[in-house]
Amino acid sequence: MANARHVQRLYDRKASGYDAATASRRLDTLRAALLAHAAGDVLELGVGTGATFAHYPATLGSLTALDVSGEMLRRAQPRALRLPFPVRLVQHDFQTLPFPAASFDTVTSSLGLCGIPDPARLFAEVRRVLRPGGQLLALEHVRPPNAWLGLAADGLDPLFERFVGCHANRPTPHLLREAGFTVDLLERRLGGILVTLRATPA
């Protein structure tokens, strides 16, 4: 991951106040509806402090929770201990997933794909680690469909990358289709800026 050290330092610093700064009933509602579709052995990319944990079905086989920030994972640990299925916390970047092929039934991400320097490389890795019939479930902010807002997002993108660690103008559904996934948009909010999606290898 080209900017892994920058993102790691950024989120290590933010970890102590991250939950308070990002708490959102709207996001929790979207996460709950999306993650209800998770099944089997699950890999979550960008788990952060574990804000998603409460939204997973109790019937999962296992959860592997990956994040580049050790401080975020330290805060996720107590939440992981309360889950009714096995949880493994892994500190690693997203560009090269440290798992054998066909390891997972579901890959999930909540506002994590927008910070990846090379989406095509990541999506190839997601395909590799998914089992036949597997799925990617993601909640993402994407480039606004409105033309003027899209241009504004383009202008703001360098600031987002530097201070937030993500991209304001990433067309994630389009990039997934280019990578050979079939993409279903499940929900669109905030004028199409915030989406939940299910992607399956075509």
From TrEMBL:
GO MF terms, alphabetically ordered: S-adenosylmethionine-dependent methyltransferase activity
SUPFAM superfamilies noted in UniProt: S-adenosyl-L-methionine-dependent methyltransferases
Pfam families per the UniProt record, alphabetical: Methyltransf_11 (PF08241)
InterPro entries xref list: Methyltransf_11 (IPR013216), SAM-dependent_MTases_sf (IPR029063), Thiol_S-MT (IPR052356)
Gene3D superfamilies: Vaccinia Virus protein VP39
UniProt domain Methyltransferase type: residue ranges: 43-137
Listed CDD domains: AdoMet_MTases (cd02440)
Protein name: Methyltransferase type 11 domain-containing protein
Species for this entry: Deinococcus phoenicis
